[in-house]
Amino acid sequence: MNKHLLWTVPTLMTLTRIVAIPLIIGLYYLPIDMAQRNLWATVMFVVFALTDWLDGYLARKLNQTSAFGAFLDPVADKFLVCASLLILVHLQRADVLVALIIIGREIAISALREWMAQIGASRSVAVHMLGKLKTTMQMVAIPFLLFDGQLFGVIDTALWGTVLIWIAGVLTVWSMVYYLQKAWPDIVDHAK
User: Fold this and answer.
1) Number of Cβ atoms within 10 Å of the Cβ of 34
2) How many CA atoms lie within 13 A of 61 on its CB side?
């Protein structure tokens, strides 16, 4: 593999999502008021989450797609989401149960995809629209919960964030069931 494909602009953007985690966590240890912490954490999460779309776009546009980038992209997404959920649980803005559902699903489906790749059946667990919808709900709910206030003086982000994170939790279970159903025939065939 060409070493230069490891350090492309899209790959570096993906890495920023991993670097974002200690930065967002660190905000909550700064001696500034909670509203400022919330605002900065929200802005950082949104900016770093947008790199998920931008790095994929640039990889295709600049013809800089790579196996390493394809591996790193979902890992960075999962790290950012899981770390943010843990922050929200710590701040008592998200229920432990919904965080456990989302984090547990990510671990289970990642392991399932790895095993399916080993047995040559990756297609049955390819990304589906249900998984993308679940991710979208998470990516809207998390900044709402991080902000934890009135947006434009009208939107109660704590309320809407809570509703959306539970919708994301339901979609998480639904998408996990979908992937398991798709993989079940291969699981049965290779369970020996």
Assistant:
1) 11
2) 8
